[in-house]
Structure formats: structure tokens, C-alpha cells
Write a structure and sequence with these properties.
By secondary structure, this protein is of the alpha/beta class. It has helices at 44-58, 70-79, 93-103, 121-131, 166-172, 193-201, 207-213; strands at 2-3, 6-7, 25-29, 63-68, 84-87, 107-112, 136-140, 147-154, 176-177. Helix 1 (44-58) packs across helix 2 (70-79). The chain is globular.
Amino acid sequence: MSVGGVSDGGVGDRGVGDGGVRRWTVVIPIKGGSGAKSRLGGSPALALAIALDTVAAAAQVAELVVVTTPEVGERARGVAPAARLVTDPGAGLTAAIAAGIAAAPALRVAVLLGDLPALQPDELRAALDFAERHPRALVADADGDGSVLITALVSADHAPAFGDGSRGRHRAAGYAELPIDAGSGLRRDVDTPGQLAALAAAGRLGARTAAELGGSGR
């Protein structure tokens, strides 16, 4: 089957569901250790819970490549047994993403940030369905400044530029912005305690994140 002139050659067709989204491979970088999500108060356990909720949701709709430390990787495999684990080279987010992309198939590769504790599988599935229409695409965060997801039908076409202001950089690099509602869990990344508290108050946190905060998840 081909989309946008790209033939998948059968790569990643295992477990194809509605829309064939399992043709996609999603790379998720997870920062391990004491530096993880320091803006949330410096809790590695909370950061890990957020990441694992993200991985668990994504694993339901796509093949995964998780880039992280060996210790965190084993925890990720506990929620996504089929995930491919790649050791974080330790040279920053861009280098971690590059290592993940290099370990992924040549076609239909997405990069998803691991700080989306409200992510629902159907939200990611819908975004990947939209992404089939574009050589490269992005989903902005709810604030409209950063990016939470980038996709490319050909992995070599990726030009990841995450960080503050990444929405503008990705658009300038040719990524088409996908029309995902601002309330979607896919767009609700957590960089501050206030963002996390808002999701907790709405009962939208994944089970692991909610448990770490002492509450109940969705």
C-alpha cells in the first residue's frame, strides 16, 4: 500500500487496526535519572510515571522505539513488551531522537515526547491518520509554542528541533501543522506543576501518574 507516493513494503504492518496506524513507528525519548522533569519539582519517580503513561498509550496504536537509560528502559518494557529499547547516548534530546530514528524503519516514523500523562490512544491514532496526508507533520502543544509530535513518511526527512519555540522551527522546516483540538491529551504536555495540577483536577491523568500523586487516574 502507498500513501503520498511512499510504499511501505510491508514494514510495520503487524497488528494493523482501524486506519492501519500500526504502519507507524513512534520514537519516544525518555530522560532518566535525577534530571528528569526538574521543572515539576525534581521528582524522578513522577517523571517516570508520566513517561510510562505516555508509553502505555502509544503502545496501543504503534510500534515503539524507546530511547532512554537501561534502567528506565526495563520499566518501559514492562508496559510495552514489544518496544525496541535504544540506549540514550547522553548528548541531549536531539541526539536521543536521532538515535531512535536511526533504529526505526525507513518509512512512517513519528517522534513523540514522553511528557503526556493525559494521552489517550485514540488521540494519537487520529493524529497519525491525519499525518498520512503529509510528507512531514507536527502537533503543537496546547500553549502553541512547542511541539509534542512530529511525523515523516520517510524517516530520513526528519529535522527534529524540539525545545522552546519548536512549533515555529518545525513549521519553518516544512512540517505541516495538524488540526488537533487544543483540549486533546496529545497536546497537554506537562512542563510545570500548574499544568500537571490542571490535568489532575480534571481527572485526566494516567493511572501511574495519578498514583504517584496520590490520586486516582482515569
